[in-house]
Design a protein that fits this description.
It comes from Streptomyces axinellae. The chain is 32% helix and 23% strand. The chain is α/β, with parallel strands linked by helices. A 5-stranded mixed β-sheet has the order 10-11-12-13-14. Strands 15, 16, 18, 19 and 20 form a 5-stranded antiparallel β-sheet that branches. β11, α10 (257-266) and β12 (271-276) form a beta-alpha-beta unit.
């Protein structure tokens, strides 16, 4: 294990080494290392005066700014640990988190203004590597958020002498992730503990174009994007202004191979890294440096970072055979202490490590993620033990289907969820593309890549996938999004009969993006238009070798009449 350190001691080393270098620049000002140190020291004394003692939980409710960086450092200098609040969180969840963490003090802009006059003279305690640095709340599968208590040593293991992410004093990082999300740990302490520069993004939400402009203007060299944001930036063609990046790290959810391959083409001099890991093991557990196009298959999550171990185990905690899927357990210096005020959950998820004969016994964290080790040693994420869907008795990994959909040249992004339809569980696929694809096309594409039981029943085109605040796809919202039903029409619903009618009904339903179409329904009443009508005649020609003149379609805009024309055509041949 490389040197265990505290955040405050590692920062002090940089202040001594390069006092005049720029430490942080934000829309509201710029500070050198010496200035940041002095301002944080002053505020730390004032926080001590307000009763902050070692291990005290201090909530920080500030927008992204120089003040935010000064305050987080001040809380640590005062011996406390910070709990960054998410400004977008509902009031109810915020109250729950403050109560759960036993927060005695909330730092707001008003409090900073009020303490500005107080003398900051109280002596500051020395933290130790095991002192808690921050508490990060993650949404639990139970629905109640759980507070992960992360020690100083875990942050040091993430950013000091990390082989997969070497940080140099001439690097420039961007603080972009919400502070409540643990990607911000890397963004904030990565530069400040290595003598580099931290650029603070403005407090408002940034578009892909804003991020591109900021990266270009500030000369950012290391950028961390959540998977959802990475996909948006690539899809919006916003990588052009980012060619100065040394490292582009993406992660937090499964990466689409198509987007990764496009990013590799557009950023030839950038090291693209897929970062994987739960908050409980401090931002990264494993990383994969992409060297060439992924093509088919998954983007690996790579190898454990320095100071971390990974084991793939079965439900009896035995190592799985080489190449087989197992649940991922992780240990080493990055592990959190456990969950705030929840010894039972801590004991259930953090187990004694049976593999490492560490003095005092190490621990392993049970991630709930399923992975396998490839022949080249890289780990491949296969899904969650709790995200596996059971459909008609089969165990289904949604991201396996998503990855297969994304290999289609016209699909930019995809998500697959389980839905209830007529009392049955079905798979529903949502995809992002320029034009609506037909179910027949999508099924044919998937049939070559996944087993039959993994082919979704319904497909819906979206302009973009809905994201949660953490940047992950909002699957609950998708599960509640169903195909629109048949609108009120001048005709009653009549189900399709023969093969022609069934094929046409499915084709119309796909193109019109509605649940079901009756054979007597008028195409234009259903919302069809001339471009779509042309598309249908092209599909008929491709399938049956029959040219239907657009004028004939306008005269007979129902499935029954079209099918009749096809049948008549077959009889005349």
């Amino acid at each position: 294990m490389h040197h265990a350190s505290t955040i405050t001691a590692a920062f002090a080393r940089q202040v001594a080494a390069r006092p005049d270098a720029v430490a942080v620049s934000a829309p509201d000002g710029t500070l050198s290392y010496a200035e940041l140190d002095a301002r944080a020291g002053l505020l730390a004394g004032r926080l001590r005066g307000l009763g902050v003692v070692p291990e005290a939980r201090v909530a920080v409710d500030l927008p992204r700014s120089v003040h935010l960086v000064v305050t987080l450092l001040a809380v640590l200098k005062a011996g406390g640990c910070y709990l960054a609040l998410d400004p977008q969180q509902p009031e109810e969840r915020r109250a729950l988190v403050l109560k759960d963490a036993g927060v005695q003090l909330v730092v707001t802009p008003e409090l900073l203004a009020a303490t500005a006059e107080a003398p900051g003279t109280a002596p500051l305690p020395e933290s130790v590597p095991e002192s808690t640095a921050y508490v990060a709340y993650t949404s639990g599968s139970t629905g109640t958020p759980k507070g992960v208590c992360v020690p100083h040593r875990a942050v040091a293991r993430l950013v000091l002498e990390q082989e997969l992410l070497p940080i140099r004093p001439d690097d420039v990082f961007l603080l972009l992730a919400p502070m409540a999300f643990d990607a911000s740990t890397l963004e904030l302490w990565g530069p400040l503990l290595n003598g580099a520069r931290l650029v603070v993004a403005p407090p408002e939400d940034l578009s892909s174009a804003d991020i591109e402009e900021l990266v270009h203007r500030e000369g950012v060299t290391t950028l961390w994007l959540t998977a959802g944001l990475f996909h948006s930036v690539v899809a919006a063609h916003r990588l052009r202004g980012m060619r100065g990046l040394r490292h582009l790290i993406a992660g937090g959810d499964v990466l689409s191979t198509a987007h990764v391959d496009r990013a590799l083409r557009e950023l030839p001099d950038t090291r693209l890294v897929n970062g994987y890991g739960p908050t409980e093991n401090t931002t990264f557990t494993a990383c994969h440096v992409l060297t060439g196009p992924v093509g088919e298959g998954r983007v690996p999550i790579g190898v454990p970072v320095t100071g971390t171990t990974v084991h793939l185990l079965d439900d009896q905690l035995r190592p799985v055979p080489e190449g087989r899927a197992g649940e991922l357990y992780t240990g080493g210096a990055g592990l959190a202490h456990g969950y705030q005020c929840d010894p039972a959950l801590t004991a259930a998820r953090f187990l004694p490590d049976p593999f490492t004969p560490a003095p005092g016994g190490g621990r392993l964290y049970r991630t709930g993620d399923v992975a396998r080790r490839r022949p080249d040693g890289a780990l491949e994420f296969l899904g969650r033990t709790d995200a596996q869907l059971k459909v008609r008795g089969f165990r289904v990994e949604p991201n396996e289907i998503e990855a297969a959909l994304c290999t289609h040249p016209e699909i930019d992004d995809a998500a697959v969820v389980a839905q209830r339809s007529h009392g049955e569980r079905i798979l529903a696929a949502f995809y992002v593309t320029e034009r609506t694809l037909t179910t027949a096309e999508l099924r044919a594409h998937l049939a070559a890549l996944v087993p039959r039981y993994m082919i979704p029943a319904v497909y819906l085109r979206l302009d973009e996938l809905p994201l949660k605040g953490s940047g992950k796809v909002d699957r609950a919202r998708l599960a509640a999004t169903t195909m629109p039903g048949r609108p009120e029409l001048s005709t009653d619903y009549r189900a399709p009969g023969g093969e022609h009618e069934r094929w046409l009904a499915e084709l119309w339903a796909d193109l019109l993006q509605i649940d079901e179409v009756g054979v007597d329904d008028d195409f234009f009443e259903l919302g069809g238009h001339s471009l779509m009508a042309t598309r249908i005649t092209v599909e008929i020609d491709e399938r049956y070798g029959r040219a239907v003149a657009p004028v004939a379609f306008y005269e007979h805009p129902t499935i029954a009449e079209l099918a009749g024309m096809l049948t008549a055509g077959e009889e005349n041949q």
